[in-house]
Amino acid sequence: MLDPDYQRPIRSRYFDALELVWLSTARRLGLTLRRDPSIFSRTDGSGLLWLGPRADLDPDDTLCQMLLHELCHWITNGIETFHEQDWGFPLMDGDDPREFASLRLQAWLADLHGLRGMLGPTGKYREYFDRIPVDPLAPLDDSPEEAHIVTVAIEAIERSQGAPFQPALGAALKATAALRDLLLPFEVDHLADDEEEGLPSLWTR
Question: What is the pTM of this model?
Fold first, then answer.
């Protein structure tokens, strides 16, 4: 017989596996994530990182990809910029070469585990990211601007392989690739909620 007054105790909470990996990585690097509908992304120099809520993101945006992009900003600008608002980036300057160097760093890190298709940036900078060659340090043209971007990216790559970013960042990318490999066989039989949408799963990228 069932007790009519029974109330099931809640002893745990479900976390998306990929979000758990990257939320833990953020914490290991001294960052605490917060969601705010009035903010797309922002840091204040205290270790707080705000991102917009899931409902405001595009269908292929993930916490993983957005956090990786923010970490690439931090790495590119230098370890000391942890204590600067928005890693010291002038948000209104769309032509800052450090932004494009961050994109090259993002591609290089993703390529270590075959994840470039999954871990591209959101927004307008995706156009540049998608033009980065197979070699993420190959310039797009012979301009001095591209040469400077590549130089900054090379410095950022070297920085990304040391403390405080490793081993946490490498472990997160490795875990992301492992999750991808585990899930790919199940994508064959997956049916989207909206079959008319026609978008494949991000895990297949």
Answer: 0.90
**If phi over 0 gives left and psi between -120 and 50 gives alpha, with beta otherwise, what is residue 113?**
alpha
Cite the beta strand spans of the chain per DSSP E. Answer: 32-35, 41-43, 48-51
Element (H or E) spanning 120, and its range?
A: none
Tens of pLDDT along 9-39?
999 998 899 999 999 999 999 999 998 877 7
Does residue 12 lie in a domain region? Answer: no
Cβ atoms within 10 Å, residue 41: 18
Residue 188 lies in a domain: no
Place of tokens 């995706």: 126
- Domain hosting 167: range is 17-183
**For the chain, what is the domain count?**
1
Mind listing the pLDDT tens digit for each residue in 76-93? 999 999 999 999 987 565
pLDDT value, residue 58: 79
> Does residue 87 fall inside a structural domain?
yes
Angle between the N-to-C axes of helices 63-77 and 97-111, in degrees from 0 to 180, rounded to the nearest 10: 120
Please tell me the distance from the alpha carbon of residue 43 to that of residue 87, in angstroms, as a whole number.
7
Quote the tokens at residue 104.
Answer: 């090259």
141 belongs to a structural domain:
yes
Which residues pair with residue 35 across a beta bridge?
A: 51
